[in-house]
Amino acid sequence: MRISALLSCLLFPLAFAHAADPATSTKQMTMRDKPDGAQTAVFWASDPVGPGETVLMIGEGFGENPDIKVVRLADGSAGQPAAAPVAWPGNGQHLKAAQATRQSLKFALPADWKPGVFAARITGPSNSVVVLLNVPQVWWAQGNLGVDASAGGWIRLFGKNLGLRASGKTGVTTRSSPSFSEVLSEPLKQKEATTATAWLAGPQTLVLPAAADDHAARLALPKELLPGQYKVRFHSGLGGAAAWSEPLSLRVVVPRPWPQAVFNVRDCGAEGDGVKDDTQAVQTALEKARQNGGGQVFFPAGRYRLSGPLKIPRWTVLHGEDRQRACLAWANLPKPPDVLLGGTNSFGIEELTIYAQNYRHVIAGDLGDQPGAGDVFLRGVRVRANAFRGHPTIEEVDARFREAQQLSTGGGDTVRLGGPNVEITDCDLYGSGRALFLSRVRGGCVRGNTLVNGRWGWYCISGSDGLIFENNLLTGGDLMSTGGGLNCLDGSTYSQDVYFAHNRLRLMHGWDREAMTSDAGGDAYFGKIRSTRGTTVVLAAAPKWDGRSWIGAGLFVLQGQGAGQYRRIVGHAGSTIEIDRPWAVPPGAQSDLCITMFQGHYLILDNDFTDTGALQFYGTSIECLAVGNRGTRMQGIRGAGMWYDGYQPSWFCQYLGNEILEGNYYHWDSASDAVIEVSSSAPPPYTGTMNRGAVVRGNHLWNHAQIRVAGQCRDAVIEGNRVEDVDQGIFISREARDVLSVNNTFRGVKHPVVDEEAVRKAAEERMKRYLGRREPVAMWTFDAIQEGSFADISGNGFAAAVEGGVSVTDGVRGHAARFDGKGYLRVEEPAVFNAPDVTVSLWIKPAMLSGRRGLVAKRFAGSGTPLVITQQGACIGFEAADADGRWPFNFTSPAVLKAKQWTHVAVTVRRGMGIAIYADGRQVAEKKTVLDRVPNNEPLILGREAWGGDPPKGDTPGPYVGLIDELKIWTRALPPAEIQAEYDSVQNVRK
């Protein structure tokens, strides 16, 4: 659909998806208003949702203890759509909130209920709202003509909740897709008939049967249907009269016939023998078609040798007798034209094979930013375009590759098209660069094709507005081939409504390996608003419009009052912008807002990924779904709200019923776990969440795959997933807030759930039990290794496990631990040694005085840490980080150590005062500071530091070589007299 249609009708279903404004949505109703209280509003609610599953709502004014009542709507006759607002049906069951904040709410539906459409009434401190769950949401429609449909044609509807599963389990996909012939069939086959129906109102009003799965429906149009503008609504068969979708506009037209005159290239002098140059003859046939106002340029079976470009006139189709027998073959051109075969718009190619060697672009038409672009089809076209064919020298290969990189980062395009009504079906496209570049396609269809990316090649689909991309095979034809994705890289300010389903993606090893990624950085504004009234918003500062139209972009409330709302821009001048509809809750003066390109309503369904990078939403991604996808040796499935040359939110995305079969992923030079990950990252000045409202449900992860919630995500639900055979099952970062993890199952998982915030709180409680004790909280005398560990003789159980080359030898008294420069000791205690006051006392006998070597360090990797004590040559070093990632505590002592001689070392840390280093009972260095050190969850490591060595390097560890004995740790700062006593207690025995 064009932007005018977007703003007049397509956003109407978005209003329902947010269920935010009674003036624009019948799916939410204010029950009572109190001017003295914060209004309760729901901007978005997670569905589909089944019995026993969690509902997540994002909005405003819920309060800490909202009243929740839910009822299942009866599945009676749908009737015709009613104009009246939804009314609370009465009764209902009280439910308890699993989590509730001012701006979010989570609660579970009863497990013993029947699947269906549910009404939820939420009563906050000031008012009540009613929200319907599982009502069909039709995001866009496409007809048999693309943007439009014709009488006797068909319509496909896309969105969610179109065909609810009988099981009610929303983490399982049906994996059903209509074939091309099924889509075109009319009327619908009887066996496909369901209780789903579509209602059309326009020049005629009628109800039609529809066949539907969860996210797509199709219906056949009667041959007698009158042309005109129609409103289309959909009903899944559940929920009765209240459960119709919001109306969506679609035009039924009488298609314009293209001229049918046939111009046979043989009649114009072409030989088709593969030897004679047929360029002039083919151009003659094309010119005749142009003079006729279009027609069919026919290629009988043969091989047509060409040496120049072919320009296809408007309303003209190049038609081969059969692509297995009719081919166009270009000679190796030393200076190829920009395009071998193409036109401006309104042309077609079918049943032809195309060969080319040196080329820039193979098939091209106008891109979507050109007036009149589009109305192009490719059917049954095979392309074999290989710029490296034959016996090129290394220098020739290099030259051609460099030339190709001037066209795009992936080289020249095999197919390059844009505008409305673009169709590519049943084609086999193999080229040396990018397989496909689509720009601002409206009502497009790419189905049943084989697309091969060449050297550094990828596929690029930019600025879409209604695109079916299904049943394709995308594969890498080169060791450097990568993937591609959906984006705004062509300068578009929005990309939306893409059905990316039932595709197979293979062998994507180059570049970032991204198999399907959304993309495009940049923004126009971040800051506050000065005022808002109706659909007019005045910003607090001037945006960076940069002379570019931002119509269709999104205005997002990131934080503060009204956070979680977005509106689309329909006009802008200076600091004043017009939005598509009023706010449900106006942003406050302190709310943070941004303007960036809108990417949303991507349906990524039932695709198969093997040896690829990620399926990911990278940057702006609004209400996108990844459902029923399968991955083998892929990076995983990711949704990242982030700073990407601007603040770009990821909101309300759901990851349902996906499966990672083999989680090993190899990128750059290391292997790692595959992930299903939602993440948030934002640098100052904005430091709040960029990822809100993610649902990760019903996924199955095998063999080194895990689920991660990383960064400052807010309000995520991790539910009903199964994770098997991996060290860590689910990770939730300490910065994340209001994450609900429930009903997940694990098998062969060492650490099922690692919730950093829960770990932190538990660590604080654990640490409190040890703070300020007079006696040491840990003490190792290293007298013997028992079951692979040195015992903690303090009685607190902090055993030091032996990792590699550590043995027992004679010590200062009794025995000591000998470190050979490879082994170390590991104490699995994440909390106690984070104590704000601490003393470490130990005897050391270094084998050498060179390099940087760890003695006691609370880290194994290179993270921020509260405690690192090192041997640095003959000096003793101390390091620690603060909460901002800086290292203000670092300092070293003078040279106090001697090789192969015992020295007593002690370090005291007193919060708010500083650090002191002692050698043989006397203070030798100190650093005063009032700063706090950062805690971490890492183990305590003895005899190793994360970086160092001889010479010290930042990417290699620093192992200690020598002896350590009598190591003690207190959770208080010992005074100098006690340090002296520790030294004397051993020194006197030695004397």
Structure report:
With 991 residues, the protein is mainly β. Among the domains are: 131 residues, Immunoglobulin-like (Sandwich), CATH 2.60.40.10; 72 residues, Thrombin, subunit H (Beta Barrel), CATH 2.40.10; 170 residues; 213 residues, Jelly Rolls (Sandwich). Helices cover 7% and strands 46% of the residues. The protein has 6 helices and 85 strands. It has a 39-stranded mixed beta sheet that branches. The protein has a 9-stranded antiparallel beta sheet with strand order 68-69-70-73-82-75-76-77-78, with no helix packed on it. Strands 67, 71, 72, 74, 79, 80, 81 and 85 form an 8-stranded antiparallel beta sheet that branches. The N terminus is likely disordered.
List keywords for this structure.
Thrombin, subunit H; Immunoglobulin-like; 991 residues; mainly beta; 39-stranded mixed beta sheet; nine-stranded antiparallel beta sheet; single chain
Describe what is shown at a glance.
By secondary structure, the protein is mainly beta. It is built from 6 helices and 85 strands.
**Total number of beta strands:** 85
Overall pLDDT: 89
What share of the residues does DSSP label as strand, in percent?
Answer: over 45%
Fraction of residues in H or I helices? under 10%
The CATH class assignment of the domain at 778-990 is: Mainly Beta
Q: Count every helix, treating DSSP H or I runs of 4 or more residues as helices.
A: 6
Q: How is the CATH topology of the domain at 778-990 named?
A: Jelly Rolls
Q: What is the gyration radius calculated from CA atoms?
A: 34 Å
CATH architecture of the domain at 778-990: Sandwich
**End-to-end Cα distance:** 92 Å
Described by strand count, sense and barrel closure, the largest sheet is: 39 strands, mixed
- Looking at the structure, what is the overall shape? globular
Class per helix and strand makeup: mainly beta
The parts where pLDDT drops under 50 for at least 5 residues are 1-37, 172-193
